[in-house]
Design a protein that fits this description.
It is built from 21 helices and 13 strands. With 410 residues, the protein is an alpha/beta fold. It folds into 2 domains: 196 residues, Periplasmic binding protein-like II (D-Maltodextrin-Binding Protein, domain 2, 3-Layer(aba) Sandwich), CATH 3.40.190.10; 202 residues, 3-Layer(aba) Sandwich (D-Maltodextrin-Binding Protein, domain 2), CATH 3.40.190. The strands form 4 sheets. Strands 2-1-3-12-6 form a 5-stranded mixed sheet, sandwiched between helices. A 4-stranded mixed sheet has the order 8-9-7-10. Strand 4 and strand 5 form a beta hairpin.
Length: 410
C-alpha cells in the first residue's frame, strides 16, 4: 500500500487500495520500444499490487502520433483514466477546458515538493495553484550515443567532442558505416537541432532564442554557427534510411552507425541489447562541449471521470507512480533519471552517473516544450525535416525561416 493510501485509510479521503475498491484503469502512452516496454511494465506491476488493474493502452509510434489520438478521445467524451504527455504545455488547453482532474491532494499529502529533484517539473504540472500531473522521469535530449565497435572497425578513436565526431565521418564512411543515425520523423530532427543550439551555442543563446523569442539572437552569428553544425549533421546522416528513433539506435548498437543524437531514453535500448555503458558504447553528454541538459520528460495526466470508483483509483495510481519503489524500477529500465531526490542510485551505470552529476551541478535548462507552444514546435519541426531532407536548402535560408518562426512564436 502506498503512502497516500495509508493516509486515505486514516480518513483524509476515501480508501480505495483494498480489493473491495479494485478498479481497472486504462493508461494510454507511447512507450512501445523494447526498453520503454520493459520500463512501463514496472509501473503496471506496482499498480496491480494495490489490488487495482493497469489496463495497458499503448499506442504504437511516437508522441506526435499518439497525442492527437489521446486528445481526440478526451475531447470526444471517451476519456481514458490516465495518459502520458511530455512535461510542458501539451495538455494546457485540456486543463483550461476543465477536462483534466487535479491531483493536488496526493502531492500535498506525500510532500512531493520536498523530494522532487527539479522543482520546475511540478511547476509544469501546475495551473492556477492546482497540480494536474505526475512527473515520472527526467529526460534530457543532450546525448551523443557512440558505437565503440564502429569506431574500432573504422580505425579511429571514439570521439570525445562534437568536432572529433564530425572529423571522423570520412573514416566511418570508408569503413562502410553511416556516420550518424537519424530517423526521418520531424521530432527527431528538431530534437537533434536543439541539442546543437544548447551545447554548441550555449545556454545563453538557447534561452534568448527559445525563452525570450529574441529574433536578433536567432539571426545572429552564434546561430549561424549552429546552422553550420546542422549542415554538418545532415551530411553525416546521409544513408540513414530508417524512420523510427529506436531503429536509428539499433544501427548504433549493431555497429552500422557511428553515433546518434538522441535523448537518454536510448539507453534503455542498449540495456535490452545487453550492452554495457563505457564498454560497448559511449555516451557523450552535451556533445562533449557545454555539458548542460534540458529537463524534459514524461508526465501522467488524469482526465476527469464521472465514475467515483475510478476517480478514487486515479489518486492511488498517482501515488504509485511517484513512489520510490516504482520510480527506481521504472527509470532504471527507461534510462532516465528519477524525479525523486531521495533514492539510492549507487547501482547507476556510467551514463546515468554522468547525468546525475550534471543535474547536481545545476547545469540544466527548461526543455523547449516548456518554452514554446505546440504550434510553434510543429513549425520548427517542419523546418528541420525540410532542412535535413533537402540539401538544396542552404543554412542561410534555413536560418532566415527560423527567425520568422521565432518572431511569431508564442
Amino acid at each position: 500500500m502506498t503512502a497516500f493510501a495509508k493516509i486515505a485509510c486514516a480518513g483524509a479521503v476515501a480508501s480505495f487500495a483494498g480489493a473491495t475498491w479494485a478498479e481497472e484503469l486504462e493508461v494510454t502512452h507511447w512507450w512501445t520500444s523494447g526498453g520503454e516496454a520493459a520500463a512501463v511494465a514496472e509501473f503496471a506491476k506496482a499498480f496491480d499490487a494495490t489490488g487495482n488493474k493497469w489496463v495497458d493502452g499503448a499506442i504504437a509510434g511516437s508522441g506526435s502520433t499518439a497525442r492527437p489520438i489521446m486528445i481526440s478521445r478526451i475531447t470526444g467524451g471517451d476519456p481514458m483514466a490516465a495518459t502520458q504527455f511530455n512535461h510542458g504545455r501539451q495538455a494546457e488547453e485540456l486543463v483550461e477546458a476543465g477536462l483534466m482532474r487535479p491531483i493536488t491532494e496526493v502531492a500535498e499529502a506525500e510532500g512531493w515538493a520536498n523530494i522532487v529533484a527539479t522543482p520546475g517539473l511540478l511547476d509544469s504540472c501546475t495551473l492556477d495553484g492546482e497540480l494536474y500531473c505526475v512527473p515520472v522521469n527526467i529526460h534530457s535530449w543532450q546525448w551523443l550515443w557512440l558505437s565503440n565497435k564502429a569506431f574500432e572497425e573504422a580505425g579511429v578513436p571514439v570521439p570525445t567532442t562534437w568536432d572529433e565526431f564530425v572529423a571522423a565521418g570520412p573514416a566511418l564512411e570508408a569503413a562502410g558505416k553511416v556516420p550518424m543515425a537519424l530517423g526521418k520523423q520531424p521530432w527527431q530532427a528538431m530534437g537533434a537541432f536543439k541539442v546543437l543550439v544548447l551545447n554548441l551555442g550555449g545556454p545563453e543563446l538557447y534561452t534568448k532564442v527559445f525563452g525570450d523569442k529574441d529574433t536578433d539572437a536567432a539571426a545572429g552569428p552564434e546561430m549561424a554557427a549552429v546552422w553550420k553544425a546542422a549542415d554538418d549533421m545532415r551530411k553525416l546522416a546521409v544513408g540513414s534510411n530508417v524512420q523510427e528513433w529506436n531503429q536509428a539506435t539499433s544501427m548504433v548498437i549493431n555497429g552500422q552507425a557511428g553515433g546518434q543524437i538522441m535523448g537518454d531514453w536510448a539507453q534503455g535500448e542498449f540495456q535490452v541489447a545487453g550492452q554495457v555503458a563505457g564498454t560497448d558504447y559511449t555516451c557523450l553528454p552535451g556533445l562533449g562541449a557545454q555539458t548542460y541538459l534540458s529537463t524534459a520528460g514524461d508526465a501522467i495526466y488524469f482526465p476527469l471521470l464521472r465514475d467515483e470508483g475510478k476517480s478514487a483509483a486515479q489518486l492511488e495510481l498517482a501515488s504509485v507512480l511517484f513512489s520510490p519503489e516504482a520510480q527506481l524500477a521504472f527509470n532504471t529500465k527507461k534510462g532516465s533519471l528519477p524525479v525523486r531526490n531521495d533514492l539510492d542510485l549507487s547501482t547507476a551505470n556510467d551514463c546515468m552517473r554522468k547525468g546525475l552529476e550534471i543535474l547536481a551541478e545545476g547545469n540544466i535548462v527548461p526543455d523547449t516544450d516548456q518554452l514554446i507552444s505546440p504550434d510553434t514546435n510543429t513549425q520548427l519541426q517542419d523546418l528541420m525535416i525540410q532542412f535535413i531532407s533537402d540539401m538544396n536548402m542552404t543554412p542561410d535560408a534555413a536560418q532566415a525561416r527560423f527567425v520568422e518562426i521565432i518572431g511569431d512564436a508564442d
